[in-house]
Every structure is written in C-alpha cells, then in structure tokens.
Amino acid sequence: MPRPTLLAVSHGTSDAAGAASIAALVACVADALPDVTVREAFVDVQQPEAPAALAEIDGPVIVVPLLLSRGFHVHHDLHGMVRERPDARVTPALGPDALLAEVLALRVADLGHPHAPIILAVAGSRDATSVTDAEGMASLLRARSRREVHLTYLAARQPDLPSTLTQHPDAVVATYLLAQGYFADLAVRQAAGRATSAPLLDGGAVPQPLVDLVVARYLAASDASVVA
Predict the structure, then answer these.
(1) What is the mean pLDDT of each run of 10 residues along the chain (228 residues)?
(2) Helices 208-227 & 98-109, crossing angle to 10 degrees?
C-alpha cells in the first residue's frame, strides 16, 4: 500500500535565494523518502497555494509545515484546509526542536565569537503559542551552545532586536529563520553591523538535521495514521 503523500507547506517568499533554499530542502526530503510522493506548497506569496495543492492530491496526505513555530498559518490555514479531508493530517511545526538548536549552534559558531552571549532573533507572532515555542527554542539553544541566550523579536512582540542589542552589546545575533527573505533582511538592518548568523538554510548545502526533522515529522504522522 502506498504511503501518504507528503505535502511540505512553507510560508512563501519573493526572495529568489530564499525560495531556492526551501525548494532544495524539499528536494532533499524527497531523496530521503524515495517511496513517498513529496510535493511543495505555500500559504502566501508563491504558488501553488496549499489548499489548491491539497485538492489535487488523491488519497492520504501528511501536511508538514515548514514553519518554525505554531501560529495563525498552522492553526487557521493548514488545520482549516484539512477539516473536510479525513484522510489528511497536519504535523506539528518544525520548532522548537533539538535538531534546530544543532543547526543554530553551528551558525553561531561560524561567527567566530565562541564565548559571546547569543541573541535569538525570531520573526514574532501575535499568537500566544508562538511565544511558548520561541522560549522553548531559546532554552534548547542555551543547552546546546552552553552560552547565555536572550530572546528577541523582529515583529509583533517585545523586546525588539535593537533594544536587546543595547542591553547586550557584546552579543552575537542568531537569526531563527528558515531562509532568506524579509525578516532575514530586517535582522541584518537592525543588527547594524553586529555579528549575525545566516538563516538555517543559508544557500549552501541543506543541513542534514533539517532534512531529518522534516522526515521525522512525516514518519511520526504516517505511522500514527496506520495505527488509527
């Protein structure tokens, strides 16, 4: 019996480098799951839109959000679109997760400040669950890096990055973003020349922990579907 289709849904971006990085991640996931049909869709900006992509898939579907935390897109868009599809389920968002902390720690290590505090800059959301997820990610990065970690937001919430940098002028900035785009550019501008890490997908080789994480989300949901 064929395994459920994996529909990988990201936010979407008009940044060409960011879009290429997400596509590369999806391609790596497809390579890691050769017996699974893997498709890509988006909640904004790019095509195909997630509901249209879902409608074109016959049979069971596992929707994996390529999103770093819970929020409106996960709760409203993705869970909303599967409400009338009993053969479809949505996995948890990618974060917080120790595999993301592993990649973040590597990005920060590349900055060459081995003992500096870390400011974890997240996109920000008005959804209260996103705060819990951001705090969880800061805790995981703190444990992984064994360094002081301060949480800050690029939008929607406080503290913002400029004020956190004022409080911690010796810190480096870890951008908790999946790929290049609006928020990555904003983080660099607000950091004003301070050492700032690239997003998790930096345009180079796709980090294996990210591939492993997406695969793990799919397999857990797929196995649960079989049991159900």
Answers:
(1) 93 95 98 98 95 96 96 85 95 97 96 95 90 96 97 95 96 97 95 95 96 98 66
(2) 180
Query: Counting Cβ atoms within 10 Å, is residue 223 exposed (0-12), middle (13-18) or buried (19+)?
Result: exposed
In DSSP terms, 173 is beta-bridged to 119, 196
What pTM was estimated for this model as a whole?
Answer: 0.95
* DSSP assignment letter at 131: H
What is the CB neighbour count within 10 angstroms for residue 21?
Answer: 24
Please state, as a whole number, how many other Cβ atoms lie within 10 Å of the Cβ of residue 39: 17
What is the Cα–Cα distance from 120 to 218, expressed in whole angstroms? Answer: 27
β-bridge partners, 42: 10, 49
- Which one, of 218, 200, 197, lies nearest residue 209 by Cα? 200
Question: Torsion angle, CA of 93/99/100/101, rounded to 10 degrees?
Answer: 130
Asked if 82 and 60 count as a contact pair (C-beta separation under 8 A), the reply is no
Residue 67 CA, chain-centre distance (Å), reads: 4
Query: Whole-angstrom Cα distance, residue 133 to residue 96?
Result: 6
Element (H, E) at 151: strand 149-153
8 Å CB contact between 43 and 49: yes
Residue (of 206, 188, 200, 9) closest to 92 by Cα position: 9
Axis crossing angle, helix 208-227 with helix 16-32, rounded to the nearest 10: 50
